[in-house]
Write a structure and sequence with these properties.
The complex is a heterodimer.
Chain A (H helix, E strand, L loop, with lengths): L1 H20 L8 E9 L10 E4 L5 E3 L5 E7 L3 E7 L6 E6 L5 E5 L9 E4 L12 E5 H7 L4 H5 L5 E5 L5 E5 L7 E5 L2 E2 L20 E5 L4 H4 L6 E6 L7 E12 L4 E11 L3 E12 L2 E2 L4 E2 L4 E14 L2 E15 L9 H9 L17 E16 L4 E16 L12 E15 L7 E15 L11 E18 L2 E19 L5 E20 L5 E11 L3 H5 L1 E4 L2 E4 L5 E3 L2 E3 L14 E13 L3 E26 L2 E25 L4 E14 L13 E12 L2 E12 L7 E2 L2 H6 L13 E2 L7 E12 L2 E8 L23 E9 L1
Parallel strand pairs in A: 1-7, 12-15, 32-37, 41-42
Antiparallel strand pairs in A: 1-4, 2-3, 2-5, 5-6, 7-8, 9-14, 10-11, 12-13, 14-15, 16-17, 16-45, 17-18, 18-21, 19-20, 21-22, 22-23, 23-24, 24-25, 25-26, 26-27, 27-28, 28-29, 29-30, 30-35, 31-32, 33-34, 35-36, 36-37, 37-38, 38-39, 39-40, 40-43, 43-44, 44-45
Chain B lengths: L2 H18 L17 E8 L6 E6 L10 E2 L2 E3 L4 E10 L4 E2 L1 H6 L4 E7 L4 E3 L30 E6 L3 E11 L14 E12 L1
Parallel strand pairs in B: 4-11
Antiparallel strand pairs in B: 1-2, 1-5, 2-3, 5-6, 5-9, 7-10, 8-9, 10-11
The chains are: A mainly beta, B mainly beta.
């Protein structure tokens, strides 16, 4: 009931206030209003006193927790909020963020008081379903890789290469088909690689928002599956020195993980600084060690904020370096090696536990520098963000002789971005943003690898312009619309297998759009629907890759052609010899949310059609120095992705609540009437959570049981022994559909426990992952041919809030 | 000047400055040191006669064309010493010395049709349980374990069949008992062979 009133209040209030607010300063008619609740119980707090700093204006909350200031002459003020028994908070407020909810934390709890501002836009559009991970849930997961943190949301899974390398899959799409925005800047990296995880340290993150609709209009190309918005801790003005220290130990991998955050705010300046590290040795599957799966990670970030009158300037710097070990037993030279590996009970090269990381391994560095300037006009706001990123990726294979310490891939990618956004004045009840983006990036192979570069050098320049608009059609219906145009110029320079230089230029452009509706229903539920288009140009590997990749040979669009049905790879094609279309996605996504005192329901069905979907197709076989290898070539088809994400939470009592979630996904290669590969499987989970408070102690405990289904929509299987026994065997003669060497792994059950005890500034936590020590292999783990996933893992953590 | 115009101006200046340091370079030429594109088998008869030299050539590195493999013709009832060479013709390099220097990490397994040779008898030592089946190695690494760069073969009566060479890279796991299913395959080639 309370939630219903709250939602209704916010929506109607927002509607009325927004249109009038922006012109109010000149006539001293600005209003500020909101609601204050207890941070722990969410109950309304009466008698909270609020004062506008520097004036004598004050008020207090009524029996429902509401307050209101009228006849204010400023569009920005500092609000001092306090009540006996609770932690006071000073909040800097401007009229662009109305609908305040202040959660005051009782003095004796570890929680901090916070202010939540009702954003009109959920990553740009209210009609776009989104999910958030923050606070306690995030705190528990922070020591994991970003991919694993994200997979706790329904509809999100991971494509992994063992446990150390995990990249997110949203609604079946990954790599270049989803965008990660880190601290307002698009994360630019070698994300074309299935084995390349995003270089972002989850320990430094404060909030993650996952937008599941195609979100091209606001963010640009590559957002076919969705967008992940990652935010560091906010730099609040006028706050005392605070932060936290975290330390965690894990049994599986004998790992130590730690991070420190400090921040402070003055009247016009605020700063923050963080460091984090992880030191991990070989992981362990239930039956054997996973040799060479150690990991090292060091990261740091610092930020500075300056605020005066209408100006808000933020600058940040972050740096991450990682060394990731890849299972030693996953290296194969040919199909027979693969057959041997599949037949082994224990992977080759399995040894005793060690912290040492040898080849094969990845070493990556990522640096991000960002400056953001916001200027508040009387009725609008202009923002300019400049970002600089430097990404260096080295990959070390097992090599012969003096090359054993030389990387096979050494790439440096430098990216500059400038984003300009103008939140324009409200016109006829239309609110929105007009913006432009510019990106310039330079990718270079660093010499000295002693192997021909896997991808060429290239430069990319991209311009984008967009407009997004929102309007209330009635008191309970909101309408979103947006349009965007992007154009990209790329220039490539590479070397072919004879070391001759090849050059090419390409231009890509596209229009994207979105239309959406949000409706609040009388019973308190809400319904969203949106249709959006998104696009992406083909990536560097799809265009130019050449040669051996694990146990296949693969060739990009410009590296192969057919001559009388015979596959030839002897030259690089000229730019005008073939036309490669952009991938174009059309996504229809809806979501229904309903909540009351007893339960909450979220259901999100979606349908996504991607035209010109780029994939690897069967191309033939060839006899190489290592024996027979199947050949794969990049081609385009049309693909269908559809599914349903469901979450249902039930509040049994103030202490117990349950949560059931399920993810269902079905995909198809509709162009070839075939299956798509690397699609995550369906999942079902149940979680039971218990919370209690005894004096100064707060204790919570939970367990969750997860069932991950087998992939029923998997390609046909051809046992590698068939290749071994018959060297002339060509799997594509009668049937050119995709195939796999082993059947999809069986479904499996995972059980996890966690518990935490909070006492004043301390939090002690315990977590047991895979408590049943289940032997399992996820379908989307590229190393599922070689070894099981991690077995049981005990984690012990301590947090101190400063 | 209103802020919007100011920002556009700022962007164009920024844009042109950064675009002017345009990088047009191709990646440096790299010596493709990993590729073995030529395998040479030299069968030298113990008695008089010229050596039989058989080549297997990869015409295009990691391209789609098949390896070109010649046929082996050997005289019957003759003792031959086999020397194996690996080359990277594109660079003009002899890889054999590298393999010999890292002898403790490399081993060659042989497979052949039964009855082609009177010594070694059988069909070679390829297979997870066949490590110690008959093959006449005449070289060894620092640990006294055979490598396979040189070996001795005595042909039998006229026959035909197949001859297979399998070079495995077994860093840290090569031993008296490591089999052809251990480690990574660097070379796996099959020749048609005729004894006449």
């Amino acid at each position: 009931m309370k939630l219903f009133f709250l939602t209704l209040f916010l929506l109607t209030f927002y509607h009325i206030s927004e249109s009038q607010q922006r012109n109010c300063a000149s006539s001293c008619s600005c209003t500020i209003s909101g609601k204050i609740v207890d941070a722990k119980t969410n109950e309304a707090l009466e008698f909270v006193s609020l004062q506008i700093k520097g004036t004598s204006k004050g008020t207090s909350t009524d029996v429902n927790g509401y307050f209101e200031f009228k006849d204010i002459c400023e569009i920005e003020v500092d609000l001092l909020i306090s009540r006996i028994g609770y932690k006071s908070i000073t909040h800097h407020h401007d009229i662009f963020h109305n609908g305040l909810i202040v959660k005051l934390a009782p003095d004796n709890l570890i929680l901090e008081s916070i202010v939540v501002e009702e954003e009109a836009e959920v990553g740009g559009f209210k009609s776009n379903p989104a999910a958030t991970i923050n606070n306690k849930d995030l705190a528990q997961l922070k020591s994991e890789s970003l991919g694993n943190v994200l997979s706790s949301i329904t509809g999100v899974s991971t494509l992994s290469t063992g446990s150390n390398v995990a990249k997110p899959i949203i609604h079946g799409l990954h790599s270049n088909r989803i965008l990660i925005i880190n601290n307002g800047i698009r994360h630019e990296s070698q994300d074309w690689g299935l084995e390349h995880a995003p270089e972002i340290d989850a320990s430094l993150i404060n909030n993650i928002e996952i937008i599941k609709g195609a979100s091209a209009v606001k963010y640009g190309p590559n957002a076919l599956g969705g967008v992940i918005l990652i935010s560091p801790p906010e730099m609040e003005l006028t706050s005392h020195l605070h932060g936290d220290v975290n330390l965690k130990g894990e049994s599986n991998g004998r790992a130590i993980d730690g991070n420190i955050l400090l921040q402070k705010g003055y009247k016009t300046i605020a700063w923050m600084a963080q460091v984090a590290t992880r030191y991990q040795g070989d992981l362990k599957a239930p039956d054997y060690n996973l040799t060479n799966t150690g990991m090292r990670e060091y990261s740091g970030a610092a930020g500075l904020r300056f605020h005066k009158k209408s100006w808000d300037v933020k600058s940040s710097f972050s740096y991450l370096t990682q060394e990731l070990g890849i299972l030693r037993g996953s290296i194969t030279g040919n199909i027979e090696d693969l057959a041997d590996a599949i037949g082994d009970d224990v992977p080759d090269f399995t040894d005793d536990f060690s912290y040492q990381i040898n080849s094969p391994k990845q070493q990556v560095d990522h640096t991000l520098v960002k400056t953001e300037v916001l200027y508040n006009f009387p009725t609008s706001r202009l923002g300019v963000i400049y970002g600089l990123q430097m990404n260096n990726r080295k990959e070390f294979d097992v090599r012969r002789g003096s090359n054993s310490e030389t990387p096979s891939i050494n790439l440096e990618l430098t990216t500059h971005t400038v984003d300009v956004e103008w939140l324009h004045p409200v016109i006829n009840d239309w609110e929105g943003t007009i913006g432009g983006q510019w990106l310039y990036q330079d990718n270079n192979n660093i010499p000295g690898t002693n192997t021909i570069p896997f991808v060429p050098n290239y430069n990319n320049t991209r311009f984008g312009m967009f407009i997004t608009e929102t309007r209330f059609l009635s008191s309970n219906t909101q309408f979103d619309v947006g349009l965007r145009y992007d154009i990209q110029f790329a220039s490539f320079r590479g070397r072919d297998s004879q070391n001759n230089v090849f050059r090419n230029h390409q231009r890509f452009n596209s229009v994207s759009g979105i239309v959406g509706l949000t409706r609040t229903l009388p019973d308190g539920g809400s319904f969203r629907l949106n249709i959006s288009t998104a696009w992406r140009p083909p990536n560097i590997a799809e265009l130019y890759s050449f040669g051996k990749h694990q146990f296949t040979n693969e060739y990009g669009f410009y590296r192969y052609y057919f001559d009388n049905e015979v596959l030839r790879t002897d030259r690089v094609l000229e730019e005008n010899e073939i036309t490669i279309e952009n991938e174009l996605g059309y996504k229809l996504i809806g979501s229904y949310t309903y909540s009351n005192d007893r339960f909450q329901l979220d259901a999100s069905p979606y349908l996504n059609i991607i035209k010109n979907y780029i994939y690897k197709a069967a191309g033939g076989i060839s006899e190489t120095v290592r024996g027979t290898l199947p050949l794969f070539i990049y081609k385009q088809t049309d693909a269908l992705f559809t599914g349903l994400d469901l979450t249902f939470s039930y509040f049994h009592s103030t202490r117990f609540n349950s949560k059931v979630s399920s993810t269902f996904i079905y995909t198809k290669d509709i162009g070839n009437d075939d299956v798509l590969i690397n699609i995550p499987t369906n999942r079902l989970s149940y979680e039971l959570i218990y919370n209690t408070k005894v004096g100064e102690y707060e204790w919570s405990a939970s367990f969750d049981v997860n069932y991950i289904f087998k992939q029923y929509n998997a390609p046909r299987v051809i046992d590698p022994e068939v290749f071994v026994d018959n060297p002339d065997f060509n799997p594509f003669i009668e049937d050119d559909s995709n195939f796999d060497f082993i059947p999809a792994p069986q479904g499996y059950t995972l059980l996890n426990f966690s518990s935490s005890l909070s006492m004043r500034q301390w939090v002690f936590s315990v977590r047991v992952k895979n408590a049943l020590n289940t032997n399992y292999r996820p379908y989307t783990n590229l190393l599922r041919y070689f070894a099981d996933e991690q077995g049981i893992n005990f984690e012990l953590g301590i947090q101190l809030k400063l | 000047m209103n802020p919007l115009k100011l920002s556009v101006l700022f962007l164009s200046i920024l844009g042109s400055t950064l675009l002017s340091c345009n990088d047009d370079d191709a990646p440096a030429a790299e010596n493709e040191e990993e590729v073995i594109d030529n395998v040479i088998l030299t069968f030298t008869p113990a008695t008089a006669g010229s050596p039989v030299i058989i080549s297997a050539i990869d015409p295009d590195g990691e391209g789609a064309s098949d390896f070109i493999i010649q046929q082996i013709y050997l005289a019957s009832n003759t003792v031959y010493t086999l020397n194996v060479e690996f080359r990277n013709n594109a660079l003009g390099e002899d890889i054999t010395t590298e393999v010999a220097e890292e002898g403790t990490e490399h081993i060659i397994y042989f497979g052949f049709t039964s009855n082609l040779f009177s010594d070694p008898a059988g069909d070679g030592n390829i297979g997870s349980t066949n490590r110690n089946d008959a093959v006449n190695y005449t070289d060894e690494d620092e640990n006294g374990i055979e490598i396979g760069l040189s070996s001795v073969w005595i042909t039998g009566d006229p026959a035909s069949g197949e001859f297979r060479l399998l070079l495995k890279h077994q860093p840290g796991i090569k031993s008296e008992v490591s089999s052809s299913t251990d480690g990574e395959t660097d070379i796996d080639l099959i020749w048609n062979i005729v004894i006449n």
